[in-house]
Amino acid sequence: MNINEKWHRANRMPKNPSLEQRIKWHQEHAKYCTCRPIPEKLIIEMKKRGG
Ligand SMILES: [Zn+2]
């Protein structure tokens, strides 16, 4: 587990994020930080969208 605090400060999850926003956030997050995995539900949604 490794938190990239700098990235987190610059990239806050919006309040009441839409599914779209959560997917985008986690895609970016995974590039810069490994503090938590992408939730399985989101991975399924990403695959549906061809990502
Ligand atoms: Zn993180």
Level of helix content? Answer: 55-70%
Order of helices and strands: HHH
As residue ranges, the low-confidence spans are none
Number of helices: 3
Total number of beta strands: 0
Written account of the structure:
This protein is an all-alpha fold. It is 57% helix and 0% strand. It has one domain. The longest helix has 14 residues. The radius of gyration is 11 Å and the shape is globular. The protein starts with a helix and ends with a helix. The site of zinc ion has 7 residues, from loops.
Element layout with pairings:
Elements: H1 5-10, H2 19-32, H3 40-48
Can you give keywords for this protein?
51 residues, mainly alpha
In a nutshell, what does this entry contain?
The protein is mostly helical and about 50 residues long. Helix content is about 55%, strand content about 0%.
